[in-house]
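User: Sorry, what's this?
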Amino acid sequence: MLQAGGNLLSEFNAFSPASNFCFLDESEQTIGNGTFGYWIDGDWLNGPWEWSDLPGERHGRGANLSFLDGHVASHRWLYTPKHILLGEETPFANNRDKQDFMWLLDRTHGGQAREKVLGLPFPP
């Protein structure tokens, strides 16, 4: 499991501090350990990925994210409500759920490294 932003020592290590989140609202279903993460069941370039923790959706079906440069933004999810399989990583419910995940992953250091290596944005 990779922790979102877990490998960053400072904002200077990020590819783009303005688009790298460090805090977000986590869902009540998965909160408990102080971190937010995702599961990669393959390799970090090609996935497949799954939810390990869920983002919150208590702000108008969305979450607030705090970025490394200090700004805060809200994001409304395409698919809600999000559900997790207890004790397991959870595959995407549908394509909109996958788009939500990819949007979030693209705002992590690991996601931006993947995009830089491949030279392409994430697939929808």
Observations:
- The helical segments are 95-105, 109-118.
- The two ends are 22 Å apart (CA to CA).
